[in-house]
């Protein structure tokens, strides 16, 4: 093997600065890295055209047949650029070129992605320090030796398929002479399948975490947060159910479900049926939606929910009606969902009580602005009052910030201080914490536009929207990376509940 991480240290990475241009990163980082990985100058092409796209680097060793698909494409950004907002771009390049791997870097961060039948997932997202200290793993995946092994295995598999096809043709036409086209029969292990080793540990199955995303103040990004948090949890491999219990049905419509055409006129059931009709089961009301590798189940709402409040009020144990339906679903069908997110209206009405009584925990979204922050005291008190009326506790996971201005650091600091003051008051926020700033969702035009333009998808799907320009797609990726951090933190704080 030419080159190894021991004989070729990555000290050249320290030569770049925040002023390093994209060209600097290509010359000072990518080309030396390719050489360390064992590739010669003829094994890769820079600024390679592939159909209608231009790739910064296309890695395809000379030893592989030209019919083999590319093993690696590399997208390079200037050192001061945020690579997270360009993930949509390399995803697109990988799908169009059908490359197995993609590396996105600005010299300070390294994101490696894997393309499985058009679904692109992140393998790792390392800082420069992590990339250097853990280089043994990236080396094993990216080096030329692995590239050739994978390419030859794919070629052998294709040859076996061709031979099997030829066998069928020969039998169909009773022409055994056709086998003369092949001088060599497949070896005994020719049809073996590559099975990557997994170090995943099967953890004990946890119960569904039912979270009401709760705030009686409108306009704080509650529904947008719920939609994109659900998508991010799905990206993390979690099974997610959304329950829209707001008569406005903004969550349902925000995910492309028309309460009239897709539910009422189609003869399907919604959350109103679930609450009022004792014979309606949870599974009778669920609709499934899929966007690339994101899959979410949804119980849609309907405007008639606002008319049915008197019927709901007359129900025996009305506050427990949703809790009982969810518990019955668990009893008969098991915990089919890792997370159930409930989106109630911005009020303190009866359906909010129903949502809170059915929940395992509460997530409170807020905006960094004086009035929404002032409302937090009443939201927390209400949540705690409902918790006291239950046999089991109702923990508040924390305060999630949405729609904050990244350029207003002084203002943001003053707002967070106000939040801390409110939470520190006696009897208000004991045990309630503000989520860390890496989980905060910035105020970006694309986030608002996704609702106003009726895009009907989570932000992670913006990369597939041909109506959006590159800047909008980068902005959507930027925002969704924050939702991913929110999802990771949510998973972390719910452990043990």
- H/I helix tally: 16
Largest sheet: 7 strands, mixed
Mean pLDDT: 86
Spell the H/E element sequence: HEEEHEEEHHHEHEHHHEEHHEHEHEHHH
Instruction: Give the helix level as a range of percent.
Output: 25-40%
CATH homologous superfamily identity of the largest domain: P-loop containing nucleotide triphosphate hydrolases
List keywords for this structure.
497 residues; alpha/beta; tt1808, chain A; Rossmann fold; 2 domains; seven-stranded mixed sheet; six-stranded mixed sheet; 13 strands; disordered N terminus
What does this structure look like?
By secondary structure, this protein is of the alpha/beta class. The protein folds into two domains: 11-149, Alpha-Beta Complex (tt1808, chain A); 209-494, 3-Layer(aba) Sandwich (Rossmann fold). It has 16 helices and 13 strands. The chain has a seven-stranded mixed sheet, with helices on both faces. A hairpin with a 2-residue loop joins strand 1 and strand 2. Helix 6 crosses helix 16 (470-494). It is globular, with a radius of gyration of 27 Å.
